Amino acid sequence: MFKIYDLNLNEIPFPDGVKPLDIIVGSISKRRETEPIPGRSGVMNYGFDYDSRPVDLSLWLEAKDSTDYRLIRNELYDFIDRNDVFYVCETRLPSRVLKVCIDESYIPDRLTVRHSTVDITCKTLDSVFWESTYTTMDLHNSGFSSTPDKYGLVDNIDINKLQYRFEPENTFNPNLIPLNQGDWENGSRWSSGTNNNAPENIRLKMESAISITVGQTYTIKDDSPYNSRIHQFMVHVFDSDGNMVQYFIRNRGASNAFTAEGTRLAISLIAMDGLNIPLDYVGGDRIRIKLERGSAYTGIEPRPETFTVYNAGNVTIEPESMMLNIIANTVYTDGDFTIKNLTTGEVFIFKASLSGVSLLLRGVNVLVSSINNRFRDSNKQFISLAPGDNEFEVSGGTFNHIRFDFKYLYK
User: Fold this and answer.
1) Cα–Cα nearest to 400, from 362, 359, 367
2) Which of 51, 7, 6, 47 is nearest to 26 (CA)?
3) Cβ distance 145 to 159 under 8 Å?
4) Do the Cβ atoms of 338 and 348 come closer than 8 Å?
5) Cβ contact 258:248 at 8 Å
6) How many CA atoms lie within 13 A of 22 on its CB side?
7) Could you tell me which of 372, 346, 370, 344 has the C-alpha nearest to residue 358?
8) DSSP 21-66
9) Quick one: which H or E segment has residue 70?
10) Per-residue pLDDT tens for 353-397?
11) Largest Cα–Cα distance in the chain?
């Protein structure tokens, strides 16, 4: 017995008088690439791609009389034609489906005036693999159920590995200071009666002040390497009218916790004697100043996050042709946000900065905030999921959570 479903996995009932009898599913054929080499026995093997999988459906037609038989036959023809592409499943294995279509002609074998059988040949589309009727996020959200109609009993599900949404284990405050060249400029900043703010000493400054909260405690630290050329950094705090209400200066490598007395903050950098600070040092990892909320400094870069994604199928999930959504939520990065599958060795890198938005890898599409395609800002490589455990490492930024949504596939 078998059932058929539309592409949204809604069951499609058969016409009256038509009953499913049996489904016969063959193995997957291969399309192998070979080449004969002169002077060498045999042929060179360049590997193979999976080609197709035979699927035959057997139906029973039962009519009241000869006229009714013809009406049921024609109803079957219309039914098959209306459902051009559909999923089919074996009733004894309801958690897996194949996507198929019917292109070949078929003729019922009339046994009596009222009864006939018909065998229909299908062909697989898009994929030759059985795929689970549920996704990993369905499984994550609901938990495993032993009800066969939901998750089945033979899909290799491990009840100890049902997590597909991961939150960072390491707490980290994102940098409030923009570290992009477009947010800085050469030149001097504001003067006060107590500091030397001569133009020849100030070599780099933030183009615009950033918003802060009055009464909030902040920590600032310069973590720049020696070749940054920074001698001192200057912090200016302004009220809502633009008046400077707070100011301090610290040497390279120093940190300082302070309570904000204004609503805007800007930073200027003083170069070492006889040197300047080029604008391209910003974003080049030679200026590493961090401003964060709180009285504890947590570092410029967060520690890598590691976790395991379990693929219960026996087929590698490849984003080029299979459903695979990797969604990182509320990402903060100055660039090079990296997702690495340590099991396969594959690495995805988003090179541009992000400020609290989602990063979605939907197949081979790289989307920011689920809208803008930013493939050009990546290393143009993608992540696949091998059968079994996949060890992941995420680095180069912070995120609220990351989730993996895909279907298990079976040969």
Assistant:
1) 359
2) 51
3) no
4) yes
5) yes
6) 5
7) 370
8) EEEEE-PPPEEEEEEE-TTSSSEEEEEEEE---EEEEEEEEE-SSH
9) helix 66-82
10) 888 899 999 999 999 987 888 999 999 999 999 999 999 999 999
11) 108
Residue 322: pLDDT above 90? yes
User: Any idea which residue has 């990797």 for tokens?
Assistant: 326
Pair 379, 362: CB distance under 8 Å:
no
337: nearest Cα among 357, 351, 356? 351
In 126-248, which ranges are continuous DSSP H helix?
136-142
Beta strand 165-166 with 109-110: parallel, antiparallel or unpaired? unpaired
Give the model confidence (pLDDT) of 60-99 as tens digits.
999 999 999 999 999 999 999 999 999 999 998 999 999 9
Spatial separation of the C-alpha atoms in residues 397 and 357, rounded to whole Å: 12
CB 260 within 8 A of CB 216: yes
Judged against a pLDDT cut of 50, whether residue 192 lies above it is answered with no
User: Which pairs count as long-range contacts for 239-247, CB under 8 Å and 24+ apart, including other chains?
Assistant: 239/263, 239/264, 240/264, 244/190, 244/192, 247/192, 247/194, 247/195
Do 358 and 326 meet the contact criterion of CB atoms below 8 Å apart? no
Phi, psi of 208 (to 5 degrees): -135, 150
Q: What is the spatial distance between Cα 230 and Cα 31, in angstroms, rounded to a whole number?
A: 61
CB neighbours of 216 closer than 8 A, spacing ≥ 6? Answer: 259, 260, 293
Task: Give percent of the chain above pLDDT 70.
Answer: 95
pLDDT at 247: 93
- Sign, CA dihedral 236-237-243-248, equals negative
Select, from the ranges 6-20, 277-291, 370-384, the one with the highest average predicted confidence (pLDDT).
Answer: 6-20
For residue 160, give every residue at least 6 positions away whose Cβ sits within 8 Å of its Cβ, in sequence order, or none. Answer: none
Placement of tokens 């930073």 in the chain: 267
* Cβ within 8 Å of residue 205, ≥6 positions away: 184, 185, 186, 187, 188, 189, 266, 267, 268, 269
Give the CB-side neighbour count of residue 106, counting CA atoms within 13 A.
24
Return d(Cα 341, Cα 325) in angstroms, integer.
14
Give the separation between CA 121 and CA 23, rounded to whole angstroms: 10
Each residue's pLDDT tens digit, 240-256: 999 999 999 999 999 99
**pLDDT above 50 (res 142):** yes
